[in-house]
Specification:
By secondary structure, this protein is an alpha/beta fold. It has ten helices and seven strands. Bound molecules: zinc ion (ZN).
C-alpha cells in the first residue's frame, strides 16, 4: 500500500487552503489599512509581504541615497573616486576623534528629513523597518565578527513621552539583518535641552557628562568593535559623548551608523 501520494495530496490541499486564506486576509487588510507612503501618506500599491512601509515614486525620487565614492571617515559623498583612504575636507577639519567611521544611508534633506520627522514626532515607529533597509548597504561595511550594536539612548523622561527610542528601533532591525547583538549599554543621565539651533560648542557643553555605561555591560563592551546607532548625524556631539564612554569601557573601536547625515561644514 502506498500512502505517500495520498499524504502528499492532503498536504498540498492544506497548503492551498493556507495560501488562499493568506491572500484573502491580505486583501482585507489592504481594504482596512491600505499601504501608504511613509513620507507623504499617499496610498500606494501593496507590497508582497505587507510588513514594511514603503515610499511612493515621488518621495523615492526625493531621497538622496549615498553611494560610493564616499569619505572614509564621515561617509559623505565625494565628487570623485580618490581611492580607499579618501577623506573629505570636512573630515580633515573635524574633531570627531572618538568615532572611527560614520556610515549613513542618506543626506538629511527631502524625503530623508520627512522620514526622520515622522519616525520621531508623528508616532510612526513602523518606519524603522524601511529606514533600516535603506541603511543596510552602507552599514554592512562596518560589520566584523567582533561587532556589537549599541543604540544612542533617550533620557527616561523623553522615552516616556515618545513611547519608544527611534535609535533602538533601528538597532533592532539592523540586529535582525546582521546577526550582531544589540546591547542597550548606554544610559542618558541628563535630560538635555533640544540640540536644534545650538552651536557646536553649546551642544558639546549641553552633552558633557550626559551619558554613562550601565555597569552590567562593561565587560561585554571591552575589546569589541562597537557600532553605535542613531537616526541623524548633525555635529557629532552626541555620538562623540557616547563613544567617549564606550572607549572608557575598553571598546576596541567605535563606528557610527545613522539613517541620515547633515554634512559638517
Ligand atoms: Zn510619498
Amino acid at each position: 500500500m502506498n500512502l505517500l501520494p495520498q499524504h502528499t495530496a492532503q498536504n498540498k490541499y492544506r497548503l492551498n487552503i493556507g495560501s488562499f486564506a493568506k491572500i484573502i486576509w491580505h486583501q482585507i487588510k489592504e481594504l482596512i489599512w491600505p499601504t501608504t507612503c511613509g513620507a507623504c501618506g499617499q496610498i500606494i500599491a501593496p507590497l508582497p509581504n505587507h510588513n514594511t512601509s514603503a515610499l511612493c515614486p515621488a518621495c523615492y525620487h526625493k531621497l538622496t541615497i549615498i553611494t560610493p565614492p564616499i569619505c572614509q571617515h564621515l561617509g559623505t559623498p565625494l565628487p570623485y573616486d580618490l581611492g580607499k583612504e579618501a577623506h573629505s575636507p570636512a573630515a580633515l577639519a573635524s574633531s570627531l576623534h572618538h568615532i572611527s567611521r560614520v556610515r549613513t544611508a542618506s543626506l538629511y534633506k527631502g524625503t530623508a528629513q520627512t522620514l526622520v520627522h515622522n519616525l520621531k514626532y508623528r508616532n510612526m515607529p513602523q518606519l524603522a523597518q524601511l529606514m533600516a533597509t535603506l541603511m543596510r548597504q552602507n552599514f554592512n561595511a562596518l560589520v566584523t565578527d567582533k561587532s556589537i550594536l549599541v543604540s544612542v539612548p533617550l533620557h527616561p523622561v523623553r522615552l516616556w513621552q515618545r513611547g519608544y527610542n527611534q535609535a533602538e528601533l533601528l538597532c533592532h532591525q539592523l540586529e535582525n539583518y546582521s546577526g550582531c547583538i544589540h546591547y542597550p549599554a548606554l544610559k542618558r543621565i541628563k535630560n538635555t535641552a533640544p540640540q536644534v539651533g545650538l552651536t557646536k560648542q553649546q551642544r558639546q557643553e549641553n552633552l558633557q557628562n550626559g551619558f554613562k555605561l550601565a555597569p552590567q555591560f562593561i565587560g561585554l563592551v571591552t575589546g569589541q568593535n562597537v557600532i553605535l546607532v542613531d537616526d541623524v548625524f548633525t555635529t557629532g556631539a552626541t555620538a562623540q559623548a557616547c563613544a567617549h564612554q564606550l572607549h572608557l569601557a575598553g571598546a576596541r573601536t567605535v563606528d557610527l551608523a545613522v539613517f541620515a547625515t547633515v554634512p559638517l561644514a
